[in-house]
Amino acid sequence: MVRPSFHGREIMERTASLEGITVIDFTAMMAGPFATRMLADCGADVIKLEPLTGDYMRYRSPIRNGRSAYYGQMNSGKKSVAIDLKSPEGRAIALDLVSRADAIVENYRPEVMAGLGLDYDTLHKQFPRLVYCSITGFGQKGERARDPAYAPIIHAASGYDMAHLKYNEGLERPATTGIFTADVISAIYAFGAIQTALLHRERFGVGQHVDVTLIDAMLNMLVYEMQEAQFQTTQRRPLYQPLKAADGFVMAAPVNQKNFEGLAIAIGHPEWNQDPRFSTITAREHNWGMLMELIEEWTLSRPAAECEATLMRAGVPCSRYKTVGDLLAEPAMIDRGTFEEVSDGSGPFSIPRQPFTFSDAPVVSRPHVSDLGEDTAGVLGGMLGMDEARIADLRARKVLL
């Protein structure tokens, strides 16, 4: 079939799973935009409502000719409508757009959307089939519901950072945070939950509120730690650590018996398979630190690539440590189609494709990143029938950009 054109580009392909689903995106920063980008890649028509100053992430580096590639990765394939939601007319326009939507996604503190009259309780009365997703740090109710919560705050509050500190003996403080795990994990939960709610609506005829919290997302990562906190154990848990090589580091994971036996032979120590310190899984767990030190004696004298190749040939899970830049240039990653190219007004750049595919439906990034307010006239004219004179008047009065 021929899918409708997006910014003038017609795409010949199978029908996308969320084709025909309209999402109004009130999100900013990272968690919300990451979730709605996934919906867009699955075919949803995502309309991003931004303040007249734009999503803050539009101004985060790396910046090329005034445009952020960081923002672009999380917002490709969406239409940008710049609107002043603090004005009565702006709220009325937003409400008109919501009336034509299947889902809303927002990631503000609870009182923000309520103050705009765009909260779930208000909208559900008017549009009972609407799926409404909120992404917050600590949820909609309770003592911490209104606390501001960026990913680093959640990493600290959830036990995640302290778990890492415990596993890294010798560190005097939790590690510096630069990768916003809480945002990405909560976005993935939101992506799945929104679709579950849409399926529920199709089966039972009613929409609902999806409440996604960053702190609960992080707690669900801490599976062992959650149970250890309740049931103390004296058994030492094996920890996987970087092994220094001649020119870098490698990670080896001889998890099961077969892995270990292959490793012992590959690095020239077949006698370890009969050594009572290492010959069983239980023995290795009790002597894990010693085992890692002995393996590192072997890796230290070899390049990381050689260590990886030797152990992988022996059936031992192993990888040298790489940078993202390494992966962007790696032929194997390029050949498997790991990266897609999108473009904004400052030129093309690469983003990773979604980590899932469907056998009978496409999952693909639409290649265009809209400038702030680029789609305002097209969306309001196409969806609401608003004429050019009306749009020009609203722009002159700073309701629209």
TrEMBL record:
It comes from the Bacteria. Gene3D superfamilies: Crotonobetainyl-coa:carnitine coa-transferase, domain 1, formyl-coa transferase, domain 3. This is CoA transferase. Signal peptide: none annotated. The keyword Ubl conjugation does not apply. PANTHER family: SUCCINATE--HYDROXYMETHYLGLUTARATE COA-TRANSFERASE. One of its GO terms (molecular function) is CoA-transferase activity. Pfam families: CoA_transf_3. InterPro entries: CoA-transferase_III_domain, CoA-Trfase_fam_III, CoA-Trfase_III_dom3_sf, CoA-Trfase_III_dom_1_sf. It comes from Sphingomonas chungangi. Keywords: Transferase.
